[in-house]
Amino acid sequence: MSTIFTLFMILIIIASILLVIIIMAQNPKGGGLSGTFGGTSSATFGVQRTNDFMEKATWTLGTTIVVLILLSIILTGKPSQTAPGIPTPVKTEAPVKQAPANNTPATQTPAK
């Protein structure tokens, strides 16, 4: 089970890094990656395609991450399989012995 979990974690990390790169390449004002390749005009060849690709890639990677997380929970987090607990140590201390009660009165020594 740990190899499946590791595989899912690696795929989630790769998808997350790609999502960050795609988001950072976009510009909310419409420039973004398409603006660095020859201007900010939307009439330039390929600019609209670049924006469509970036938007589709963002949604696809976001959905992929959510699906991978849900699959990793479903496949690796079965409630019937519990991890072995740490056994509690058994106390091996002996009970404390109490001193016997002294019923005889204390004798005073004579002062010199």
UniProtKB/TrEMBL annotation:
Lineage: superkingdom: Bacteria
Function: Involved in protein export. Participates in an early event of protein translocation.
Biological process annotations from GO: intracellular protein transmembrane transport; protein secretion; protein transport by the Sec complex
InterPro entries, per the entry: SecG
Any GO CC annotation of this UniProt entry: plasma membrane
UniProt keyword terms in alphabetical order: Cell membrane, Membrane, Protein transport, Translocation, Transmembrane, Transmembrane helix, Transport
Annotated region (Disordered), positions in chain: 79-112
Transmembrane segments: 7-25, 57-75
Organism: Epilithonimonas mollis
Subcellular location: Cell membrane
Membrane topology: Multi-pass membrane protein
Polar residues: compositionally biased ranges: 100-112
UniProt name for this protein: Protein-export membrane protein SecG
One annotated GO molecular function: protein-transporting ATPase activity
Cross-referenced Pfam families: SecG (PF03840)
UniProt keyword Cell membrane present: yes
Family: Belongs to the SecG family.
